[in-house]
Amino acid sequence: MAAPSEPFFPVEEIDMRLKTIIRYVLFLIPILSLISCLGSSKNIKDAIDWQEIHDDFSILHTFDVENGHISLFERTTYSDIGIAYINKSRKKSLTSINGYLSQKAEAPEWIYSSGSLGGGVYSIYYGRLDERPNGKVFVQFNNQGLSKEATLIEASSSMIWVVIFDERFESKDIRIMYK
Predict the structure, then answer these.
(1) Among candidates 161, 158, 103, which has minimal Cα distance to 131?
(2) CA neighbours within 13 Å on the CB side: how many for 123?
(3) For residues 101 and 127, is the Cβ–Cβ distance under 8 A?
(4) Distance, CA of 94 to CA of 98 (rounded, Å)
């Protein structure tokens, strides 16, 4: 009877090489996953830029809401302020842009915008002030008997006040109050 032949590589050496390869693979998987996540994420400016077809604009303020982001941006070309509704995901997909408020004196002083993110609906009122107020600004919704403090944001040629509701809220009878 012939003696069993020896394998070309000893079994112990194959096991050692296999263990080393498995360690490297297990080490690289989390690193590669992290790199791929970082590389594919968009920022809010990129999401708006894609929709605005590379118009010259700047982001004035971004509100983080439960289902995403609501950004106010100023278009230099048109001298107006727009609202962007952006999903809260890695890709920051834009759901809509609307509600352009002109900064020109002859234009309406405020505008209403409504949009949805995820399952949430948002109502936004925003308007133009020619100069920065000394105190706080409140928006009174006369037909609802409600008054809400506004967030103030500086634009290139005016101050912008903003009030956000995380529900559908519509009113055409509003008044700006200073306190």
Answers:
(1) 158
(2) 8
(3) yes
(4) 11
Written as one string, the DSSP assignment of 78-123 is TTEEEEEEEESSTT--EEEEEEEEE-STTS-SEEEEEEEETTEEEE
Rounded to two decimals, the pTM is 0.70
Token pair for 123: 């109502």
Contact between 82 and 72 (Cβ < 8 Å): yes
Model confidence over 16-73: pLDDT tens digits? Answer: 777 777 777 677 666 655 444 444 345 777 777 766 555 688 889 999 988 788 999 9
In sequence order, what are the residues at sequence separation of 6 or more whose Cβ sits closer than 8 angstroms to the Cβ of residue 99? 82, 83, 111, 112, 113, 124, 126
Q: How many CB atoms lie within 10 A of CB 126?
A: 22
What is the token pair recorded at 52?
């605005």
